[in-house]
Write a structure and sequence with these properties.
The chain is elongated, with a radius of gyration of 25 Å. Helix 3 crosses helix 4, helix 10 crosses helix 11 and helix 10 packs across helix 12. By secondary structure, it is an alpha+beta fold. A 4-stranded mixed beta sheet has the order 4-1-6-5, with helices on one face. A 3-stranded antiparallel beta sheet has the order 3-2-7, with no helix packed on it. Helix content is 43%, strand content 14%. The protein has 2 domains: 218 residues, Orthogonal Bundle (Endonuclease III, domain 1); 124 residues, Nucleoside Triphosphate Pyrophosphohydrolase (Alpha-Beta Complex). The protein contains 16 helices and 7 strands. The structure holds iron/sulfur cluster.
Length: 368
Amino acid sequence: MTRKKYTLLPAEIISDDEFSTFRIQFSTDIIRWYDENKRELPWRETTDPYTIWISEIILQQTRVNQGYDYFLRFIERFPDVQTLAEAHEDEVMKYWQGLGYYSRARNLHAAAKSMNGIFPDTYERVIALKGVGEYTAAAICSMSYGMPYPVVDGNVFRVISRYMGIETPIDSGRGKKEITEWASRLIDRKRPALYNQAIMDFGALLCTPKSPGCAECPLVDRCIAFADGLVSKLPVKKNKTKVTNRYFNYIYVHAGEYTYIRKRVGDDIWKNLFELPLIETLQPVTEEELIALPEFRNFIAEGELPLIRLSLRQVKHVLSHRVIYADFYEVTLPETTRSFTAYKRIKKSELDQYAISRLVQIFLEKNG
Ligand code: SF4
């Protein structure tokens, strides 16, 4: 039998006592499931806000498996706020290399510098940190200080949307508000840290986007999406992310034992990472077309004749909103070359000391 959907105005359909029973049942089931199925993760062994903050920032847009080793290395090198604040940004970026979304590392570093060695202990001051939004502030405050702020990430959106049968698109303002309000009402106020970890793992491991484990789910008897045959349709999203293509032409210079790199600046991907000389084009170009471009000619000093070889073509690199197609050229010049003056001249053997995008790193590992 289909259960009546609750609304955000429980007084009209449900008493406080009834809602309290409903909430306790929900959190008890989720926490019991978590006790039996939770992932053992190092940041769950602590209530230290710094450690939780680092883990939460690493896990934004990064899968746990991928972020695990980064977290251990990062915490080993930067064990506390003070150490992180005193580090050079280039070194922080180097420890982040390969994780992507590099603004996270820049924000971590800037926030650490703003703390004067002491991690803030109120929600208002935590959420004021650079790079910390509602989700991260709720995770830190609930898990470190036991405050009843609900975490609302993609997993929580999915669980609540299905369990409550909410069909409002979750990428609309109304949908976000609706689910966030439900999250605030459903949180276990006595055990917020446990509850928050439980609902996130529940969404990540059982109530998954594709093929959720409804047959083993402790909520199945009360789940509206299950009862109404809506599991595969919820949560609803109205806007699919638009993906754009970009075309990068990288140049790996051989000038004896030297090569050239530059730090990326501007409001774009991979800001503050280093990279090889780059020409971005609006569409794929041939070797002849690339050499004819003014940007390429500007690289080369007058009178010098580089030897140019296309090394790798159309390497596809997928980011969240972009697909990059990269061609890699190798350009050989004399060791005393006057070309590439806008770039930093370093020994090729020193390349691994610089934080470089994963795309270029993969090329260098094969061809460096
Ligand atoms: S019954 Fe299925 S859809 Fe509903 S909460 Fe459980 S796993 Fe998710």
